[in-house]
Every structure is written in structure tokens, then in C-alpha cells.
Amino acid sequence: MKIFTIKSDHTQDKVLAYLLYYEKAKQFYIELPPDADEWDTPLILSSFAKRGHKTINAYWSNAWVQERIIPSDRQNITEILRANNLDSYDEYKLLILANGRCAQDDYYIEQIEWEKLPDDIQSRFLIRVEEVVALGENDLLIFFRNGTTKKCNMNQICTETRFQAILHSESLFSAARVQTDGYGITWGENLDVGADILYESGKDIPISIDAFHRFAADRITDTTGARRILNCSRQNISDLIRRGKLHPLRSSTSSYLFLITELQQRQWQ
Q: Which residues are CB-neighbours of 191 under 8 A, at least 6 positions away?
């Protein structure tokens, strides 16, 4: 992870925000300081400061970066990349080449180490998401880095129109996954919910992620395990599923996952 301060020529050494870049994921995130002023904060981010939001999601963080670099559809982009010794279009490298500067404003970036991040921002990483499990009725079970587990009803959180297709499709809703470094959960571009919102909105559940992992390891098995427990063939397993006698937790083209308790109950029938 690379970390940069965002500053302005007009505010001298005052840090207006922090830009974090995850190299493998090629993902940007912006963190605002505790005392962020909407009038000093870069325009595209000022609305977040006004609402008191301190963590900027990947979509809008990337939008800020895009404002500061040459667009990928520039007519002479190939020549520009070649002139800067770039083999391909790389947002991060283009941002670094200009120190984050652009012609429209006087903002720039400076790289720092993790230890230079304010304690307040470092503490935000304690409530990053470690794991997410989709439950019924648009509920998610969220495990956080600080050991807290919360049940979040996404009908109450995802009220914007862009989320409606997900909330009305069990298969889409179940595809929720953890964002880079646990910044929240996501279903795709600009379809994400930040860890801070989930943490504030969720209902505490007395279960740890370690306990959940132990449960999964001890009480969930695949098709091979099911065949062993029921002493039957793969074809028999498929037939039981087709007739509604077995209910896999997850299925793919080649395998299934089952609760061991259901398989054991099947032995008694």
C-alpha cells in the first residue's frame, strides 16, 4: 500500500486528505482528516466533508484521481505514454509523474509512511470488514477487524435506486463480497457500502469470526464428504437435490456444499 498526503499550494503544509493506493488491486481510497473543512477539501470530495463522512469510497476516490491525469481516450494517448516510458495506461504511474497536480487547481500529493498517518485514521482500520455472509431477507452478517460482528439489514441501508435490482434478487444479493482491505462490501462498481456505515447501522451479534470459521470447518462439507456420509454415488446426490431431499448451501457446475447436520438427518430417514 502506498500512502500520500493531499495538499494545496494555498494552504501551505496543511494536510487536506490522505490518498491510499493498493498496488495489487489497483484501487484508490481517500481518507479525510478529523477536522476536514468542506471549503478546503477538494471540490469533488467536499460534499463528503459536509456530511461528516471521513472515508471516501473507491468510486469517488478514483474519480478524484481521474480528474488529475490524462484520460485514456485522449486521441494521442499512445504517443504520450511512449514519451513517458509507459508500456500501458496506468492511472497510478500517471498520477505520480505529475505529483498529483493538474491545470484546474493547486492540489498536489506527497508520499508518506504508515506511521505518519494520524492516530484517528489508523484507528479506522480496526472497523474494516473481515468477512461477509448473506442471510435471508436482505440481511448481511458482517465480521469486523476489531472482533465485532453485526447483522445489517440492507433494506434500511441501501435506499438509493441503484441498489434496487440487488435487493430484489437473492442471487445478486448473495454475491456481496469484501472490498479491498475491508473498506466495506460491494456488488460491483459504485454498488458498495462503507465499513463505517455498516458498523454504525448494524445490530451486534455475539459471535466471533473464529467461531464462525470453526463452525464452517466442522459442520460444512462438499460433495465428496456427502457421498461418504450417505454412502452413495454422485448421481444419487444429484437426484436427492433434484427431488428437494437435500438443500446445498452453495452449488457450482462440479460440486456442492452441504450442512453436515442435514446429511446426518438424511441417514435417519
A: 162, 163, 166
